[in-house]
Design goal:
- This protein has one domain.
- The chain is about 60% helix and about 5% strand.
- The strands form two sheets. The protein has a two-stranded antiparallel ribbon with strand order 1-2.
- Helix 1 packs antiparallel against helix 2, helix 2 runs antiparallel to helix 4 and helix 6 runs antiparallel to helix 7.
- Its EC number is 2.5.1.145.
- GO terms for molecular function: phosphatidylglycerol-prolipoprotein diacylglyceryl transferase activity.
- It is a multi-pass membrane protein.
- It is an enzyme of class 2 (transferase).
Length: about 270
């Protein structure tokens, strides 16, 4: 068993103001995505100009935060949302959903592209390699904040999280997600998008690989206590929400390579 590296989830406290590592992870992910978007926008194939990157990042950030919060309250809020609808607006109490943030970004990119006459799927292919940076850093924030830990296990790298009331040795599932959804997905998309690909292909790889990675890790992650297992008695809410991403990813790749036009590196 490995010792849990206890790190104060509060990175900086100034009087009553507390800045958590999780919040800093979000900000760092957005900043890193902005920097990479600037670099990619200078390429001849980019559908986004350097002058448009700032607005792009702003739209994406709004989609992440608003979509992530709305998605969490709808997908995971359950009875709490019914009993206290105002809870959905209290962002400082925590609670974000990747799938909600993903839908929020889709809507934000649609609005951004429509206003600037940029084809939607070319825009999505452009931003797909930027997303895993924030995903990976967010999972590190979960690990530091002792959130979303894994199931009890006896593997040699199991950890006992200090905040766990049962004090069980558990899978550090946040680190599994950091490795798969962050490091692996970023490396794969960065490599895949470095050569000319049909429109929708990069988006298809993102949706397929993320969906598969999340579906797999959910087997090692403790399900939400107030939800538990759902379909067939063994699927979690996260797995159910990831299945459409897998099917959409396959469909996008089919469309891309069945009839996609090859014109530029990333569409």
């Amino acid at each position: 068993m490995l010792p849990y590296p206890e790190i104060d989830p509060v990175a900086l406290a100034i009087g009553p103001l507390k800045i958590h590592w999780y919040g800093l992870a979000y900000l760092t992910g957005i900043a890193a995505g902005w920097w990479l978007a600037l670099r990619r926008s200078s390429q001849a194939w980019s559908p986004v100009s350097r002058e448009q990157v700032d607005d792009l990042v702003f739209f994406a950030a709004m989609g992440i935060v608003l979509g992530g919060r709305v998605g969490y309250t709808l997908f995971y809020g359950g009875q709490r949302l019914i009993d206290d609808p105002g809870w959905a607006l209290r962002l400082w109490e925590g609670g974000m959903s990747f799938h909600g943030g993903f839908l929020g970004v889709l809507l934000a990119m649609y609005l951004f592209g429509r206003k600037r006459d940029i084809p939607f799927w070319r825009l999505m292919d452009f931003i797909a390699p930027l997303v895993p940076i924030g995903l990976g850093l967010g999972r590190l924030g979960n690990f530091i904040g002792q959130e979303l830990w894994g199931k009890a296990t006896d593997v040699p790298w199991a950890m006992v999280f200090p905040d766990d009331p049962l004090q069980l040795a558990r899978h550090p599932s946040q680190l599994y997600e950091f490795a798969l959804e962050g490091v692996l997905l970023f490396a794969l998309l960065f490599w895949f998008s470095s050569r000319p690909r049909p429109v929708c292909a990069v988006s298809g790889v993102f949706s397929l690989v993320y969906g598969c990675a999340r579906f797999l890790v959910e087997f090692f992650r403790e399900p939400d206590a107030h939800i538990g297992y759902e379909a067939f008695g063994w699927l979690t809410r996260g797995q159910i929400l990831s299945l459409p991403m897998i099917f959409v990813g396959l469909a996008l790749l089919f469309v891309a390579y069945r009839g996609g036009a090859r014109s530029g590196k990333v569409k």
